[in-house]
Design goal:
Layout: E1 3-6, E2 13-23, E3 29-35, H1 47-62
Antiparallel strand pairs: 1-2, 2-3
Length: about 70
């Protein structure tokens, strides 16, 4: 889990963005980034969210460990 937030409904810490890898039968793996953030276009204009998407794209395409800069 990369980002989490405290739920007002449950009081639990809930994941907001996460990454994982799926192993394929050919021995390679596929990287996956998922987020529950940005349900509208206004969210996409927030610089911090743009940074998260940018870092996700870099990690997905190059395998770079860029999350430490968030």
């Amino acid at each position: 889990v990369l980002l989490s937030a405290l739920s007002k409904d449950t009081g639990n810490e809930e994941p907001q963005a996460w990454i994982y890898e799926i192993s394929q039968s050919n021995g390679k793996s596929t990287r996956v980034f998922q987020t529950t953030l940005a349900h509208d276009t206004v969210s996409l204009k927030v610089p911090e969210f743009q940074k998260i998407l940018s870092n996700a794209g870099l990690w997905l395409s190059k395998g770079s460990d860029r999350w430490k800069d968030l």
